[in-house]
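User: I'm writing a short report section on ligand binding and want a predicted complex to refer to. Could you take this sequence and 2-oxoglutaric acid and write out the structure as tokens? A short remark afterwards would be nice.
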Amino acid sequence: MGIQVIPLSPAIGAIIEGIHLSQSISHEIKQFLEQALVEHQVLFFRNQPLTPAEHYRFARNFGDLHIHPIYPNVPEQPEILILDTERNDLRDNALWHTDVSFSATPPLGSILSAKKIPPIGGDTLWASGTAAYAALSPAIQQLLTGLTAQHDIAKSFPADRFATNPEERSRFEAALKKNPPVTHPVVRTHPISGLPALFVNEGFTTRINELSDPESQALLAFLFQHSQRPDFTVRWRWQKDDVAFWDNRVTFHYAIDDYRPQHRVMQRATVNGDKPYFLER
Ligand SMILES: O=C(O)CCC(=O)C(=O)O
Ligand SMILES: [Fe+2]
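Assistant: Sure. The structure tokens for the complex follow:
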């Protein structure tokens, strides 16, 4: 197929060359990408200008698309959301998170397209939840088995920043009402690879249900810190028209907020996923 895969670290990340994302892709290439996504967890593509319609069409190869309850979207393509530092307070993406884990069925993946990149700064990091889980001692792995945690939209979208005018407030209140806190397993089995992955994230996870408050806080603090270890991460220096496609089932990411007052604009499509589960191995 003339496709090149260039891994970026043992744990996570690969550059894919030789595929044009703006054109329709064959079933063979779709399957190749799905497999590469499971293996490398985040795929990077250079020089892939995508209109919102092309972005939508590429993402639809992998499932139905999610419409974000809070972020603004492209009016004629509501599945494409806009992350524009001049329109929104995006500070909360500078925190390790898994997209939309506050949903009962969090996204399978997100596909992010760089529209405007500051001359320096604005890199994004991804971390592998499978590598993080594998590096835990058997005793801690055993402890986590069977634990569940709450994920809450309100943790990353507080009213004082996302409900600043009447229009925002009504959208915000509807989002909270539609998305009450949900419970997910602390360790999630990847539905394709079958590998276990840590599935608690600083952005949305509020507590571990089976523990007391202090126990939950201490264990979550440890798990967040552990999963951020550089060994499990890859860092991407963006150029305009780069695309990143990550497996949101087993990864965390962090958008570095170090470029103000420079302007940065990204567009994202978010592919719906299934309900997380844990299978004893
Ligand atoms: O702006 C970025 O690099 C990533 C932002 C983010 O968290 C996302 O698109 O899900
Ligand atoms: Fe995100």
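A remark for your report: Residues 132 and 227 are 5 Å apart (CA to CA). The two ends are 36 Å apart (CA to CA).
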